[in-house]
Design brief:
Layout (H helix, E strand, L loop, with lengths): L1 H32 L13 H28 L2 H27 L1 H20 L10 H8 L33 H11 L1 H32 L5
Helix pairs in contact: 1-2, 1-7, 2-3, 3-7
Length: about 220
């Protein structure tokens, strides 16, 4: 019985932490929706779309963690089963996204390159309002120039393509597409480890909730 109490309060503590994390994600979404564009995002993934995604993720995390917290605290079978079901659906969604990323890796790579070229052409044509990629930020951050190299900006190379403008003759020779690709590949291992850790926590949370559910059922407490 003491072990089950320990499990119960452990679930309460962990879900409370996740509730705070969900609230933080929701707050980040609000902050991004009220902030002008400052990230080198692609046109199909604007700040508005990212903020909306953070809204949904934040609300979902807070709701699931609240169900787990209240279900464990009150020893409510209905809430615990809802918590288990939502976590299971979340794991299936994560696996589906991972599989899609692996299957369409080349298509995603081509999509990113095409988006960079389209944004660069818009900037060259003076349509900077329609482009959500801030080339000044992305080139200074990754020390790159253009999509493939500095010749994409001919005849005038922007000052962001080198350490000290004007950049004629001393612009960075590496394109931003190559730099972004290297950055994503270098962070792939860390992302994979993070996903594995998250999935492990979700599996443990499902095991804990099912253990409590079975204990409540055997105790004959029913739906409280």
């Amino acid at each position: 019985m003491s072990c089950l109490k320990c499990l119960k309060y452990t679930m309460c503590a962990v879900n409370f932490i996740f509730f705070l994390c969900g609230a933080a994600i929701f707050g980040l979404g609000i902050y991004m929706s009220t902030t002008s564009k400052y990230l080198p995002l692609f046109p199909s993934f604007s700040v508005v779309n990212l903020a909306s995604a953070l809204f949904v993720i934040g609300i979902f995390v807070t709701c699931v963690s609240f169900l787990g917290f209240l279900g464990a605290l009150k020893e409510n079978r209905c809430l615990l089963m809802s918590f288990f079901s939502l976590l299971f659906l979340l794991m299936l969604s994560e696996l589906a996204v991972a599989c899609l990323l692996l299957l369409y890796e080349h298509e995603i790579d081509k999509f990113i390159q095409d988006e960079l070229k389209a944004s660069l052409n818009q900037t060259l044509a003076g349509e900077t309002i329609n482009s959500t990629i801030d080339w000044e930020i992305i080139q200074k951050t990754f020390k790159c120039c253009g999509v493939n190299n500095y010749t994409d900006w001919n005849p005038k190379i922007p000052g962001a393509c080198c350490e000290t403008p004007p950049c004629q003759g001393k612009a960075w020779t590496t394109g931003c597409y190559s730099k972004l690709k290297q950055w994503f590949e270098s962070n792939l291992l860390g992302t994979g480890i993070g996903v594995i850790i998250v999935c492990s926590i979700e599996v443990l949370a499902m095991c804990f909730s099912m253990t409590l559910f079975c204990h409540i059922t055997k105790s004959g407490l029913g739906y409280k």
